[in-house]
Every structure is written in C-alpha cells, then in structure tokens.
C-alpha cells in the first residue's frame, strides 16, 4: 500500500478547511494509507506568554528549557492532538492520537544540549507500532515529543519528526501542511524547487523562520521519499492524482 506522511502545522491546525479534509478523503479513496504528525507553534507561544516565559528560536528550532518542554508537551499532547483527532473523526476519518514518547514510537537524541536544550532529532521510529494502527484502519496522529536518552523526553520540530516517520515507513509522499500555499517569493508560489534553488533562497533570506526546518526536511526526505510537497491546509490540495503547492524535485543529473 502507498503511504503518505502528513505534517500538519500548528500554524494552520485550527483553520483546516472542509476542502482540506475532502482532499484527505480523496487520498484514502485512491488507496493511500496516512500517518499524521502535528506541530503546535502558535499555541505553545501563547502558553509560554501566559507563563511569562519568552519564546526563543535558533534557525527555526525552539530553544527548550525544562519549563518550555513541560508547556510544549501539555499543549501538543493535551490540546493540539485532541483537536486534530476530533477534526478527522468529524470528517469520518477514523483516527487515533499517539503520544510519540510512548513505546518509543519516536526515539530521539539531543541535537545540541548547550545551545537548544531539550530538543531532539529522531534516531529511531517504532514502525511496527504504527503499522498496527494502520492495519486496524486507524490513522495515527503523532505528537512531536520523543523518548530521549536516560529517561528524558525531547521536543522534536514537527517537520523533522514527519521526515523521520516518512523515512522509516518508506513513504511515497511527505506532505507538509502549513498556513501558506507553499514556498513563496515576492508573494508568489514557487511550484517546484531543487536543492540548489532551495539553498539559494535560504542564503538570500527569502526562506526564513519556520520555513527553514520545513525545506531542510523536504530536501533530506527527497533522498528516500518519492515526492515531497508543501501545501496550505486552508484549501484543497489533491484531486485525481494532482497535487497543489510546492513540489521538491531531485536535482537533474546530466
Ligand atoms: N519563503 C517563504 N515562503 C513561505 N513561507 C515562509 C517563507 N519564509 C518564511 N516563511 C514563514 O514560514 C511559516 C510556516 O512555518 P511555521 O513554522 O510558522 O508553521 P508550521 O510549521 O506550519 O507550524 P508549526 O511550526 O506550529 O508546526 C509561514 O507562515 C511564513 O511566515
Ligand atoms: Mg514550523
């Protein structure tokens, strides 16, 4: 069966349109099995503000102290995951929320403890556990919180988590759903990008902030995953085998 890993941005989770879910259903009707990973950026920021803790990012990654980690886990597992599962079920897509640190569904190691704190990069995915859900006809919805070394729990950028899941599942498509129609330049959608073109856009500052881990994940995923797309969750993104947004292409070799 063909697999799509969908990363749903916290940026757009509350604004997912009915047409987005129609596209999801078209994918299912076309024989794709789907695994979701979600983020929670804006809600985590709001929670930290309430706690009088400043949000700090380095290259689009959230610097994560113990306090920030607790807030992130509360928001991701307690609120965002619940919302997304309910929205899927409201659209008749059977889903199940999965706390990714359980059963080492996602296992991670520190990226740079001094600079970023409790931020991890996924090292192992418990593929068997995910396949059990899929075999039962359930769409697993994963939080980007991973089991770390020595009893720790690590915050993983949700784009990175989705990339790791796509790699582990040998997914045919990695779809990153966000609050913009794809990678933009001067407000215009860029329909296709290669690694060279993407790196130029990062160097010139056209790609910045949260788009950086997203495109870096896209380029990494291209090595194992047939198709990588960034699309908006506010619109339909798929119909009759046609995908909207920015598609990442492997570099042409002469
Ligand atoms: N060239 C660009 N094209 C499009 N968006 C860009 C670009 N450069 C930076 N961005 C920003 O990247 C944002 C998307 O990344 P962001 O991390 O904020 O959202 P997300 O990953 O969907 O959500 P979350 O991080 O909560 O999972 C856009 O809203 C936009 O502000
Ligand atoms: Mg993001």
From TrEMBL:
This is Acetylglutamate kinase. It comes from Domibacillus iocasae. One of its GO terms (biological process) is L-arginine biosynthetic process via ornithine. It is found in: Cytoplasm. Substrate binds at residues 40-41, 62, 155. The keyword Methyltransferase does not apply. InterPro entries: AceGlu_kinase-like_sf, AcgluKinase_fam, ArgB, Asp/Glu/Uridylate_kinase. Catalyzes the ATP-dependent phosphorylation of N-acetyl-L-glutamate. SUPFAM superfamilies: Carbamate kinase-like. Belongs to the acetylglutamate kinase family. ArgB subfamily. It comes from the Bacteria. Pathway: Amino-acid biosynthesis; L-arginine biosynthesis; N(2)-acetyl-L-ornithine from L-glutamate: step 2/4. GO terms for molecular function: acetylglutamate kinase activity; ATP binding. One of its GO terms (cellular component) is cytoplasm. Keywords: Amino-acid biosynthesis, Arginine biosynthesis, ATP-binding, Cytoplasm, Kinase, Nucleotide-binding, Transferase. Its EC number is 2.7.2.8. Coiled coil: none annotated. Residues 2-232 form the Aspartate/glutamate/uridylate kinase domain. The keyword Amino-acid biosynthesis applies. It catalyses: N-acetyl-L-glutamate + ATP = N-acetyl-L-glutamyl 5-phosphate + ADP. The record marks 7, 214 as: Transition state stabilizer.
